[in-house]
Specification:
The protein has about 170 residues and is an alpha+beta fold. It folds into two domains: about 5-95; about 100-165, bsu07140 like domains (CRO Repressor, 2-Layer Sandwich), CATH 3.30.240.20. Helices cover about 55% and strands about 10% of the residues. The chain has a four-stranded antiparallel β-sheet with strand order 2-1-3-4. Helix 1 (about 5-30) runs antiparallel to helix 2 (about 40-60) and helix 3 crosses helix 4 (about 90-95). Belongs to the UPF0702 family. It is found in: Cell membrane. InterPro entries: DUF421 (IPR007353), UPF0702_alpha/beta_dom_sf (IPR023090), YetF_N (IPR048454).
Amino acid sequence: MFFDDMQGLIRVLIIGVLGYVALVFWLRVSGKRTLSKWNVFDFIVTIALGSILASVIISKSVALLEGILAFVVLIGLQYLITWLSVRSSKFAALVKAEPTLLLSDGEYCTAALKSQRVTKSEIRAAIRGAGILAIEDVAAVVLETDGSFSVLKQNNSGIKTALSDVSVY
């Protein structure tokens, strides 16, 4: 009921350690971008890597080398997508969402809030998290491509070059 035999437990222990070491190795080789804040593709790769590791550890039908090859394929695809995104703005537009302006000069962008499924209370929480007490002191709140909020304080110049690539509804 608790286990079939000691050989199965020893296999899980050995394959688990080796699979984990292989995953850490390939993540280190692939660079920091693989572990950055998640966009859709990062999410898929991360979940898939965890699934592969679990399959290698638990399933006797998945060999360690097959799992390591699966790690390499997924991390390689992630690397290729990010490499292409950096070199081609058209490709980047296909695979990455644009940041979205949610609040501008103290005014909520209602259409953007609805389309991005963000509430006003989430905006206020982001503003408080930035250490700002008054919405009127905020130049903009942007929903970034990784789902995080950027809160930008008002400045005296009125120049907002940081918002040049942000979608406005």
